Amino acid sequence: MTNLECVRLRTIILISCLALFFSYSVLPDPAIVRLSVRVEGDTPFVSVQIEGRKYSMLFDTGSHLNGLRKECMNRVVSKSYAHETSTIDLKGVGRKERIFGFAAMGLGSLQIMNCGISEISDLSDLAGVSLCEETFIAPAWLQQCNGILGYTIVPNGAYFLDFGGREIILAKDAKQLLKFFTDDYVAIPFLANDERAIIPVDTNLGVMRFGFDTGASISVVRSRLIADEHITLRYLGRPSMMTLSKFVIGTIDCGPFDLWMYDIAEEIDRIDGLIGFDFFLKHKVCLDFAGKVAYIEKGTACNSSVD
User: Are 270 and 167 in contact (CB under 8 A)?
Assistant: First the structure.
């Protein structure tokens, strides 16, 4: 069984707008912050500091919430209970999240003040579900993972993601980050009325909605959208894989593009699939949450440009 057959998939997807202790950051314009990234189990991690302690956090552009494991949360003195909110995972399983307000968190040279952090009591919130079985399987790196950083950690910020180079660069203005592309790139607006990084992708099966999700180890598509004739690889009792011959993001055709089939819950109706960490390893991507635009470098993995 290959690593791609059994990987973790982020499970926290929000179904409602949250009234969090919204964080704000001391990031003077035109400063940028560079973060080193550690990759374990096809998953990106960054280091944060809370009250002098270092924690290894999964960097998850698909999560609205930031989370800290319960045993780590218990060590934090300067926290205050804020409120409880509801979330739902990709399988449609709901849970309650307790949100705490933190006085400060260090992220590289950046100080994030008054940030909202949820308490993670279930390890499956970190490791998700296995794509090779319908049961939870704890990967080896799980015990070293202390929590999750979502895309709201720097509100309305811009993130330049170079996971091949093991680096994330933060800035207030995405224009400060575009110089870090080394190849041609394309700008794709997020879908209207959605704060998440969800974009339209033109495929041989029509236009589909994909979310950029660094917390998903591989890219997936909603199972019910795929007819049997499009399945390219089957596993008994496990998810199947299909290949889209056409996968056009803006003017860049990344087809043929492999996707694992996943039973995304009907409640998660804003997406047809997720573009996971496997894509980010091949492409530099800049996500501008203020301007609601994704910038994607063509890279060597794409076949051709589309007129």
Answer: no
Closest CA to 46 of 214, 212, 168, 172: 168
For 78, the enclosing helix (H) or strand (E) is none
The pTM for the full model equals 0.83
- Pairwise CA distance, residues 225 & 261, whole Å: 9
- Buried b or exposed e, range 112-134, using 16+ CB within 10 angstroms: beebbbbbbeeebbbbbbbbbee
Q: Is 89 exposed, middle or buried (0-12, 13-18, 19+ CB in 10 A)?
A: buried
The closest of 168, 39, 70, 65 to 110, measured between CA atoms, is 168
Helix (H) / strand (E) element for 279: namely helix 277-280
Average pLDDT over residues 229-242: 65
pLDDT digits (tens, 9 = 90+) for 157-168: 899 999 999 999
Non-local CB neighbours of 121 within 8 Å, separated by 6+ positions: 69, 70
Contact 11/67 with Cβ under 8 angstroms?
A: no
